[in-house]
């Protein structure tokens, strides 16, 4: 169970960062794509201290995805959307996990 939880947390952190980069890409900024950060491959996102904290205390982080806000089209809405993308991804993962666990009972 611990291994499953760690894998879920690890990919949740990675999905959070990829969501920022993907939304920025949709609004015209290809910085994350050029740096190879629009992938779910953990090697592209792992921060050593953040990963250790994830394993030790269950809370961690990944390397932030680079976003150049000057490349975004419709800048006010785009900046807000990029910022909310990570939180929205976390909420969707949590709701999905809740319903999955509820159905398993």
Name the descriptors.
105 residues, mainly alpha, 4 helices
Blueprint of the fold:
Layout: H1 2-26, H2 31-34, H3 48-57, H4 75-104
Structural notes for this entry:
With 105 residues, the protein is mostly helical. The protein has one domain (2-86). The protein contains 4 helices and no strands. The protein has helices at 2-26, 31-34, 48-57, 75-104. Helix 1 (2-26) runs antiparallel to helix 4 (75-104). The mean pLDDT is 90.
Estimate the strand proportion: under 5%
Structural class determined from secondary elements: mainly alpha
Number of domains: 1
Shape: globular
**Which series of helices and strands comes N to C?**
HHHH
Question: Gist?
Answer:
With 105 residues, the chain is mostly helical.
